[in-house]
Amino acid sequence: MTLSLSGERPDPPETADEGVWLACIECGTTFAPFEAVRYTCDSCDGLLEVRYADLPTFEDFEGRGVWRYADALPFEEGVAIEEGDTPLYEVPTIEDETGVADLRVKHEGMNPTGSFKDRGMTVGVRVAERLGVDRLACASTGNTSAALACYGARAGTEVLVLLPAGKVAAGKVAQASLHGARILEVDGNFDACLDIVSDLAARGEAYLLNSLNPFRLEGQKTIGLEILEQFRDQTGEFPDRIVLPVGNAGNTAALYKAFRELVASGALAPEEVPALTGVQAEGAAPMVEAIEEGNDEVRRWEEVETRATAIRIGNPVNAPKALPGIRETGGTAVAVSDEEITDAQRSLARDGVGVEPASAASVAGLRKLRESGDVAADEQVVCLTTGHLLKDPDAAAAAGANPEPVPADTDGVLDHLGE
Ligand code: F0G
């Protein structure tokens, strides 16, 4: 089965619960959504997707934040602390310099815990409550752990997070710590952490809230829905392209699913779907490799390295959902260097938008694709920035200006300023 934009609407199976069910994207087997804990297909181990009998149109959306989109989600409400409703900024300097027709930045760093992960957690932790599990867990490059710790605390449930030792930005560890998660620092990279936590989940030790969990991606769909509505409010049209950083490829998969559902409901024409354009760091670019080489499968990179630690990932688990998303929407993928990422981080800051390095990858990628001509000058583009500047204070300080020591008197300060 391929995940296409054709707009087909399957009939609900008998296992559906109030019009919601799970389906395997590989073999099509369907499952009841809330009867048992399940992350992948029982028959073929393929990725699962949440399906709905009723698909939303724009008229169905009302209220604010993630739960404005309840008609596209499995519940009416979740474990919520006002996630979503993030700003879509103009960035005049970068727009001028890249020379696209319109450029906006969707700043997901403005969510409660400072990243887009909150959108997935408000749904995922609600599902965990429904399933009655007593321990939540994730592997993380940092942001997932911060969000899970926060939403787990809010739900009163124990949280266990596995982090690659020494490779998680300070702000994120601090968040997971203060929200009361138990933090295990693993002597290995993120992919090793995810292998372990998936094993723990399979043994029934914890409920997995990585983006392998199909319900997380439902919450993250709302990034795409919000972008369409905000961009249309600001410009009268939908964007031609959305450029986003890629790690596990959860967002790429989630945005594609949001658009497929709008196409299936008749709310969006297939040609109105924005081209999904993924950006990875050169030292961790297995998705870019698969797109460039035309492969259906993504090769796992055992060694990965980048300053953008949030996307220091060699085995993007959502690739089977995300590759069709990039291809079917006419998008592409590109790798950028750490220097290009830091340059883009500085440019965003100059336009008033403070982001962590992984987020700036989207702008670095857009620059590169403009130079190569893959993105045209008449395009209307949204770059997704996924996490706040304060997540990684060390990277921000290294990219920015150095503090200058001065004496504790006004004349001394003026002397120093050379005035
Ligand atoms: N940007 C930031 C700031 C992230 O934290 C992540 C992923 C991504 C981009 C990539 O998103 O996985 O949907 O392609 N962070 C995960 C974590 C892996 O553990 O916090 P994706």
From TrEMBL:
TM ranges: none
Cofactor(s) of this protein: pyridoxal 5'-phosphate
Signal peptide: none
Disordered as annotated region, ranges: 395-419
Domain Tryptophan synthase beta chain-like PALP: 82-387
Keyword Amino-acid biosynthesis (UniProt): yes
Example of a GO biological process term: isoleucine biosynthetic process
Pfam families cross-referenced by the UniProt entry: PALP
Role noted for this protein: Catalyzes the gamma-elimination of phosphate from L-phosphohomoserine and the beta-addition of water to produce L-threonine.
Protein name: Threonine synthase
Organism placement in taxonomy: Archaea, Methanobacteriati, Methanobacteriota, Stenosarchaea group, Halobacteria
Gene assigned in the entry: thrC
